[in-house]
Amino acid sequence: xxxxxxxxxxxxxxxxxxxxxxxxxxxxxxxxxxxxxxxxxxxxxxxxxxxxxxxxxxxxxxxxxxxxxxxxxxxxxxxxxxxxxxxxxxxxxxxxxxxxxxxxxxxxxxxxxxxxxxxxxxxxxxxxxxxxxxxxxxxxxxxxxxxxxxxxxxxxxxxxxxxxxxxxxxxxxxxxxxxxxxxxxxxxxxxxxxxxxxxxxxxxxxxxxxxxxxxxxxxxxxxxxxxxxxxxxxxxxxxxxxxxxxxxxxxxxxxxxxxxxxxxxxxxxxxxxxxxxxxxxxxxxxxxxxxxxxxxxxxxxxxxxxxxxxxxxxxxxxxxxxxxxxxxxxxxxxxxxxxxxxxxxxxxxxxxxxxxxxxxxxxxxxxxxxxxxxxxxxxxxxxx
Length: 384
What we know:
The protein has 384 residues and is of the alpha/beta class. It has helices at 18-27, 36-49, 60-70, 88-95, 114-124, 156-165, 217-227, 250-260, 263-281, 315-324, 351-359, 371-383, and strands spanning 53-57, 78-82, 99-103, 125-128, 131-134, 140-144, 169-173, 181-182, 185-186, 193-197, 210-214, 287-289, 296-297, 303-307, 330-331, 346-348, 360-363. Helix 2 packs parallel to helix 8 and helix 9 (263-281) packs parallel to helix 12. The longest helix has 19 residues, at 263-281. It is globular, with a radius of gyration of 21 Å. The relative contact order is 0.19.
């Protein structure tokens, strides 16, 4: 590959049976929202995660939206979520006419700081009718959506204990952490419901698509019902509630089957390349590469270059430096409370989240990245 060629941040690796399965779907004319590949994809995906059930849907945002609804989140409820997150889960909370409470993150896993969560629940809430209520707003807090940021699992054991104590449903935003493990258990199989995304930049993709996983048959059946327009009759167009056309189409599920077969290999490649990056970056003053905690196994979906607090560059300046070398990099997300539509949302401390935003840059991490491309990225960092 030419040294002048463009290095993308994260692109699909379609090197397995994807074309074979898609050809089957097209040959059999199963290309729309029903078909055998969808059912097989759901079955195989649940087996991979270790859950009893999986429900395929159109994207990760839809998965979170439906999960909130089947978890019992209703209008005027509140849902705890990280301030440092992609916008999708916060949008989904508002789709339900509920309100987010934005929680600070920690440097260990870039996710919700469970100690601060405990402080909030102990000092800012009260109990009534078996539920937890916010002292400030007098709204019920019905759920919490921890996100396994960039593939790093949240410290779930203490979070799950708090959720049980305060009667909140735990919906894992595992959209970035497919293949990651917390104490030997796959993410998505830790709370009541798990949500995944198969967007084109994820560790595996269906082009677009998402998945809901659970061990609760009632939740699974409700999710399937709502994602298929709440239709109750195979012949008549009878619908028993407001539903959503959130189904995954068969041709995309066919891609997913081919991708899922390669997941163990994808995780292995991600972890191997992370080690190559880390060994080199550890020797470069002013920078480090974020690493997993001892009790987890990250899929290292994104490789997070961390700038020292006294670094002479800003993240945005580094994006421009890399771009001049035809290398795509990206900052982590802006805090949700800094976006215009969420500026009035309640937040509980922001200091660490702000620091992470200022100091984390995602660098190229595709599963089909070549060694010489990794060297090019490292050379840019060295030359800084």
